[in-house]
Please model this.
Amino acid sequence: MQLSLFSNAENKNLPEGFSLEAVFAAYFSCRSNKRNTINALVFELDYESNLIQLWKELNDGSYQPGKSIAFIVHKPVQREIFAADFRDRVVHHLIINKLNHLFEKEFIYDSFGCRINKGTHFGIKRVDTFIRKCSKNVSVLGITSSIRSYYFRALPLKQRKMRNRKSYCSTDILNHLQNQRKS
Model:
């Protein structure tokens, strides 16, 4: 089933695509966690022009993702991180703002990653509750776990496209995911 997620149904005078208001909302959401990074600061110097340009590119189909930034962190364990450019992060927020309500219905209650009003702390409290129930409130020394690599790119492109095509995504999103894979 395909949904027209990117139509401007509330205003019939606008063509299908992303509204400028949605792009600005995605920007403000994105910058709340990345405000002091170099890329965010550079983008913010002329954010209105940058967002209008991004909006035009998204709606005329000329948007191309930028290069990712790669770096190594050493704590808690050494690992390589690939971070999207700030401009691309705005697009990620724009897409998740459109899709989140669709996926939220399918997640189980005990899924915590990247969910509104959930997250690491909520998950830890939930695990603690389960441990206390099972151990009858006897103290437990500790639990360690490591998630190897859950980075989105680990999923083969063909599998992502099929999953997305079968569920919710319009061709705009499929094209964006394919462009992400190429960069």
Summary: The radius of gyration is 19 Å. The longest helix spans residues 86-104.
